[in-house]
Amino acid sequence: MIVDDLHLVKDIVESCDYQRRHLFNAVIVALLSKAHAAGQRLAFSTDNAPPPLANRAHTWDICDFTPADYQAICSAYFDPAIARRLDFGEIHRFAPNLNAHQLRKASVWLSHELGADTARFIEYLTTHNLASNVEIEEVEPVDWNDLRGVDDVIEALEAKIALPLEDRVLAAELGLKPKRGVLLAGPPGTGKTTIGRALAHRLKSKFFLIDGTMIAGSANFYSSVNRVFEAAKRNAPAIVFIDDADVIFEGEHGERGLYRYLLTMLDGLESESAGRVCVMMTAMEASSLPAAILRSGRVELWLETRLPDEAARASIFRDKISCLPATIGAADVAVLAAASRGLTGADLKAAVEDGKLLFAHDKANGKQLKAPEQYFLAAIETIRRNRRTYTKKKRPQLTEALSIGFKAE
Ligand SMILES: Nc1ncnc2c1ncn2[C@@H]1O[C@H](COP(=O)(O)OP(=O)(O)OP(=O)(O)O)[C@@H](O)[C@H]1O
Ligand SMILES: [Mg+2]
User: Could you say which of 213, 234, 331, 358 would form a disulfide bridge with 405 (CB–CB 3.0 to 4.6 Å)?
Assistant: First the structure.
C-alpha cells in the first residue's frame, strides 16, 4: 500500500482546530503497528517525515536534480536526437530548481518545435510559467487593458512594474528596479484582483501569489509564506502579489506576526537580491493596513482603483453588450451609464449578466420583448436594492478559514 503526499494530509489535520495534539502521529503509529502485525509493508511519500515514520521506517531521500537527472527526465519525452543536441549543464545552470512536472512540460513543448536546441529550451523557461506558485491555466485570462476608467493606474503599472521586470536588456542598461513595495487600494469590485490576474498572465514565472488560502490559521503558514519569498528571490526580478492584504492582517486576531514578518522580508529583500523583488499588496482601504507598514517608507508606490465614472461605465457596458445579438445588444449604453452611478465594475458586469437572463426568460416564454435597455435597467435596480439591504446588515466576523484566492470569483 502506498500513501502518497503524506505531508498534505498532515497539513489538513494540523490546520483543524482539534484539541488533542499529536493526533496525526498517533494515527501513523496505529497504522504502522497494524501493518506490522499483518506482515504488510507501507510506503509513504512525503516532503518531511513525521517522527513516528522517521524513527521506524527506512528512508530514501530524493536529492536536488543534477544536469544528469534533467537529461534522464527530459529524454523520456523527446527524440534521442534532440536530447543529444541539448546542453543540460547550461540548462541546469540557468534554472537549477526545476521539478519533474516543469521539465516534462518544457520537453513536451520542445518535442513539437523545429530546430529545438539549448537556446530554444532556455527561451521556453524564460517565457513560461515554470517557477511561479500559481497554476496559470487556472487563472482566468484577463488583460488589465480591459479595465475601464483606471488608465493612470495601468500606466503606472506598465512603467514601474511591468517594464523593469520584462525588458531585461533595458533594465540592465539603465539599472532599472521594480518598486519595492506597491499598494493597490480601492473599493470592493474595482479591479484589484483582476490586475493581479493580468500580472500573473503577463509575468508568468516572475509572479508569486500569497492569498487567504495560505493563511487559514495553519501552523505552517510562515513556512508557506517563506517558501513563496524564497522562490521569488531565486527568480528575481519577480513580484509577490498579496491579495486582500487587509483581510489577511485582520485575520491575525491581534497577533502581529505576519506584518512583522513582512517588514523583515521587505528589508531582507533589499539587501539580499538588491531590491529586485517587488511586493504588491491589495486592500480595500489603505488605512486598514497596519500603520507600521505604511509609515515605514517601504511602500514606494500608491495606486488607487476607483468607482468608474460615467464615461467608464458607458465603456464597460459597450464592451459587454455590443457583441450580443441586436435584439438585446442594441441597448442604449448612455442610458445605462447614467442609471448606474455609484456601482462598481463588478456590479456592472453582474448587471449585464442578469439583464441577459431576464431577456432570455422573456424570449424563452414567448413574451412580448421590451426595449433592450429595460432588461439591464431592471438588473441595475435589483443590484442597488440588494446593496441597500446588505449594507444595513452588520458585517459578519471574518473566520480564519476564509478563502480569497484567485479561483474564488
Ligand atoms: N474598472 C473596471 N472596468 C471593467 N471591469 C471591471 C472594472 N472594475 C472591476 N471590473 C470587473 O469586476 C469584476 C470584479 O473585479 P475584481 O475582483 O478585480 O475586484 P476587486 O477590486 O479585487 O474586489 P474585492 O476588493 O472585492 O476583492 C471583474 O470581473 C472585473 O473584470
Ligand atoms: Mg479582490
Answer: 213
Sign of torsion over alpha carbons 132, 138, 144, 148: negative
343's grid cell: 456601482
The residues that bridge with 3 in the sheet, in sequence order, are 44
CATH topology of domain 310-392: Helicase, Ruva Protein; domain 3 (1.10.8)
Return the pLDDT at 401: 40
**In which element (H, E) is residue 301 found?**
strand 301-304
| 282 vs 309: CA distance, rounded Å | 21
Pocket of ligand 1 (CB under 6 A): 147-150, 186, 188-194, 244, 284, 305, 308, 316, 345-346, 349
**The residue type at 138:** E
pLDDT at 275 (0 to 100): 58
- Integer Cα distance of 190 and 65 in angstroms: 44
Atom of ligand 1 nearest to the CA of 244: 27
> For residue 197, which atom of ligand 1 is closest to its CA?
18
Between the CA of 7 and the centroid of ligand 2 the distance, in Å, is 30
DSSP state string for 235-300: T-SEEEEETTHHHHHHTTTT--HHHHHHHHHHHHHHHHTTT-EEEEEEES-GGGS-HHHHHTT---
Give the distance (Å) from ligand 2 centre to CA of residue 189: 7
Of residues 164, 243, 130, 195, the one with CA closest to residue 345? 195
pLDDT at 320: 93
CATH topology of domain 136-304: Rossmann fold (3.40.50)
Q: Which ligand does the CA of 316 lie closest to? A: 1
Task: Compute mean pLDDT per 10 residues along the chain, 409 residues long, and list them.
Answer: 86 71 87 93 90 89 89 89 87 78 87 84 72 66 85 90 82 82 91 88 80 64 76 78 81 59 68 66 86 77 92 95 91 95 93 96 93 95 87 49 44
**Identity of the residue numbered 1:** M
